[in-house]
Amino acid sequence: MKAGVVAAAAAVFAGGVSAGRAHGHRHAHQALFEKRGHAGEVCVPSCTTIYSTITGEATIVQPSPKPTSAETPHTTEAVPTSSGPITVPTPIPQTCPTPGTYTFPATTVVVTETTTVCAASTTKVPQGTHTLGGVTTVVETATTVVCPYATTKTENGVVTSVIETTTYVCPTPGTYTIAPITTTVTASETTVVVPVVTTICPGTYTAPAVVTTITETSVVVYCPFTSETPFPTTSPAPLGRGSSPAPPPGLGGSGKLWAMTYTPFRPDGQCKTASEVDEDIAAIAKAGFTTLRVYSTDCDTLPNVGAAARTYGLRMIVGIFIGKVGCDNNDPDVAEQINALKEWKEWDLVDLCVVANEALFNGFCTVSQLTDLIVRTKQELGSVGYNGPFTTTDVVGAWLENDVSSICSVIDVVAANAHAYFNGQTLPGDAGKFVAGQLSLVEDVCGKPGYVMETGWPSAGVCNGVACAGHSEQREAIESIMNELGNKVVFFSFRDDPWKNPGDCQCEQSWGCAEVFGV
To answer: Where is this region: Disordered (predicted)?
Structure first.
C-alpha cells in the first residue's frame, strides 16, 4: 500500500576485493541471492481476515427504495430532509417523497484540516448478486495489511456508513480486495449506494442550489459539493507517463535480450578466478546478451568482469551494495566500494550505476539516507569522469509504500526487481505480463523511464499457488518475459547457486537460467 492513505487500487556486505575473503563474502551476501526474505510465508497456503471496529465519523446513507410511477403535479416546494450539521463536504442525500419540483438551497462547508470520513458513492448495477467496494491493495511479499475500510450497519431500520479496520493476513504477493460488500439486486437495473473511505482536503466546498423535477415517489437525490481546492480522493493519482523523458542513450536492448546478472562465485561460494570469469562472460555473450549487471566490487569483480566484458564486447551495469542497517555515506563498506569504482574507472564500459539493491525493502536505508547516498555516489564517481545515469532498485512495494519523491529527484531512470514466481496467481506463461505491470507501476511513481534489474523463474522448488517451479516452467516464463519486455529486463541469474540454503520454497539455489539461452 502507499503510505499515508488507505490502500489503493507491498544485500550485499562489502567484503573487499581479494579472493582471500571469499568465505566471509558468501555468508555476508546471503540476502543478495534470497529473492524474498519471507519466502517461507510465501509458500504457506493460508489466508485469514481478522475484523475489528474503530470509532469513525459516520454519515447517514438513505436507502434507495424502488420508485413507483406517478403523474407530475404542477409544483411542490420541498424542504431538505437531511438532519444535523454538515461538517464535511460529503454529498447530501435529499429525499423527495412524492413527484414534483424540488428546490434545494446552496450549502457551503469550510474544511480547515485534512479529514478522513465515510462517504457514499453510487453505481448502477443489473439484476443479480454483485461484490462492490472494499479496499484494493498490491503487496510484493507475504505481509500483514492493516487498513481502514468503509462498510454499512443497520440499526432500527437506519443504514449507517462506518469506518472499520481489518487486519488482512495473506501469504503471497498479489492484488487483494479487502472487505468488499455483497448486494443482491432483484430489479432489472438499480442504483446501489456503496460506502467509501474518503480523504477531504482543506478548502471551501459548495453544494450549489439545485432545482429538480421528480416524476416518481420516494426518490433520493444526492447534492455533491464542488471546490476550487483539490477534490477529495479515495486514492492518490499516479504521475502521468505521457510526459516521461526518453531513456538515456545506450540503455536497453535492441531485440528481446538485454542483460544478465553475474556474480563471480563458484558453486561452493568461493570467488572464481579470472579465467573462470572469462569463460562465463564468453558464454553470456554467445547467448546474445549485450550487458552484464554486477552488484558490488568484491571478488575482484571490476577488474575480472571488466576485462572479460571488454574482450567479448559487452556493456556493464555496476553497483554499490548495502548489506546492513544504516546506509551511511561514511560507512567503511560503502566507502570501500566507491573507492574501488573510482580506482577502476573504466567508464567507457558502463551504461548505468545502481546504488543499493532492495535497501528500502530490507530496512537497510531510509528514503532520506538512500537519497543522500545516491547524491554522494554521483559526486564521488563524477569527480573521476563518470557522467552516466544513476538509479536504485527495489521491489515494487517499496516504491509504492514510501514517499520516494526525493529519490525520484536524484535518479535518471527508475528500476525494480520483479519476480512473477512469488505471485501465487501468476502462471509461467503470464510472467511477462506480470513483470510489465510491475514495471508500469514503478514508472508511474517517478514519471521516468524504467527498467527491471532482476527477473526470472526458478527451475526447482515447490508450487506457490499456480506458480510452479521447474525446467519447463522456467523456460516458458522466461520466454514470456522476453516476448513482453526482454529489451528492458536483467535476467536473474546466470548459473544456479548450490551453496545457498534452499529456503522454504526450495527454490533459492535454482534461479540459474543459462540453459534456457543455450549455454
So the answer is: 60-88
- 152 and 282 in a single domain? The answer is no
CATH number at residue 344: 3.20.20.80
Output phi, psi for 169, to 5 deg.
Answer: -110, 120
> Which DSSP string do the residues of 339-386 spell out, in sequence order?
HHHHHH--GGGEEEEEEEESTTTTTS--HHHHHHHHHHHHHHHHTTT-
Residues catalogued as catalytic? 358, 454
- Regarding whether 186 and 309 lie in a shared domain, the answer is no
What does the buried/exposed string (b/e) look like for 211-230 if buried means 16 or more CB atoms within 10 Å of the residue's CB?
A: eeebeeebbbbbbebebeee
354 and 272 in a common domain: yes
Pairing of strands 158-170, 48-53: antiparallel
Does the pTM of the predicted model rise above 0.70?
Answer: no
Q: Residue 121: helix, strand or coil by DSSP?
A: strand
- List, for the chain, all residue ranges whose pLDDT scores fall below the cut of 70: 1-92, 111-125, 133, 135-136, 138-139, 145-147, 152-153, 155-163, 189, 192-205, 221-250
Contact criterion met (CB below 8 Å) for 149 and 108: no
DSSP-derived 3-state class of residue 77: coil
* Per-residue cell: 284: 553470456
Angstrom CA distances, 155 to 61, 152, 225, stand at 12, 10, 28
Query: From CA 54, how far away is CA 70, in angstroms rounded?
Result: 44
**Total Cβ atoms within 10 A of residue 173:** 33
> Which residues are registered as beta bridge partners of 455?
491
Statement to judge: residues 309 and 210 lie in one domain: no
**Domain span at 163:** 50-227
The answer to whether the CB of 357 falls within 8 A of the CB of 37 is no
In a domain, 82, yes or no: yes
Taking residue 458's Cβ as centre, other Cβ atoms within 10 Å add up to 30
